[in-house]
Design brief:
Elements (H helix, E strand, L loop, with lengths): L1 H12 L14 E9 L4 E8 L9 H15 L9 E8 L14 E5 L5 E3 L5 H9 L10 H8 L17 E7 L9 H10 L7 E5 L7 H6 L5 E4 L43 E7 L5 E3 L11 E5 L11 E5 L7 E9 L4
Parallel strand pairs: 2-3, 2-6, 6-7, 7-8
Antiparallel strand pairs: 1-13, 3-4, 4-5, 9-10, 9-13, 11-12
Helix pairs in contact: 2-3, 4-5
Length: 335
Amino acid sequence: MKIAAIALLAAACTIEQPPPEGEQVTSFVARGDYSMTYGARADVLFVVDNSPATAAMLPELRVVQRAMLERLATFDYGKLPDVHVAVATSDLADQGRFRRGMFLADALQFDLQRQRNYEGDFVDVALELLDVGTAGGRPQPIEAAARALSEVNNPGFVRHDQRVAPTIIFITAGDDTGTSSVEDLVAVLRVQGVSTRSVGALIGSCDATTPRLDAVLSESGARVTLCDPNPERLIDVATNRFWQTLEGRCLPGRLADVDSSTPGVQHECTSWLRDRISGDERYFPECTPEHPNDCWSMGDSPYQGCDPGLGLAFKPSRYQFPATAVIECVTDGRP
């Protein structure tokens, strides 16, 4: 009898139960860590002619200077990038020392607040620094720039970082009047991290010949005059070292449909942003009408090598600080 009872029990344990009705989905959570590039940085040195030759052009020059600064103030998706901005005169009697003995520093922090070393509006404060007068000696802006970028004369201005290189904007009535070898001065500028593709010159005289300045700009720097259309675009040379977001960013795995009663794949993701220096974290939402910026979205991005619908885009595509976006999504477990 015991054997019969055991046999009946074993048979009962092997009876297959009918599967639940409807499609069955096994879900998993996949995580992706995406290092955001941070290249919206610009160290801009204005070397301004303060000789009497600039007196006649000052009214027009001030208009262009304001337009350049307003353009710089919107370089980073409508915001001021992480900047160091300084002004030196072209008169070697000033030894390349910065105006007011300082440079403007302004950067967006991880909490989206700006850290700056000045009070007031950026454009207005920078314009005041650019007001160098007309009582200086003969202009030698190339050597003045080399002296201004010296760590001895102006410590802390040049950030020795591959993500930022000094930009030089010469603003002069005409050519450099120095006698030092231009080749030697360019060699000094190279040691200081300057690339000639990040050097520009605004010449006040519409028909001036400027062979010495042209030699500094010979690779691909920009040269404009007050007679050219839109001379304020000269400041765009400061963006030559801006870094962009890397390609190949895909969501990890195939998204699970967490609500089959609603048409389309209804996904569920959690996301946050981490400061790679401090380790601080904050909410980093998916883009919606309520969160149109400082967010992420997904879509078809075949150029990134992602599966359809799984390509990532970030707004903005770069930050002024080192950050990692972390995104966790419910997936169906398929690779």
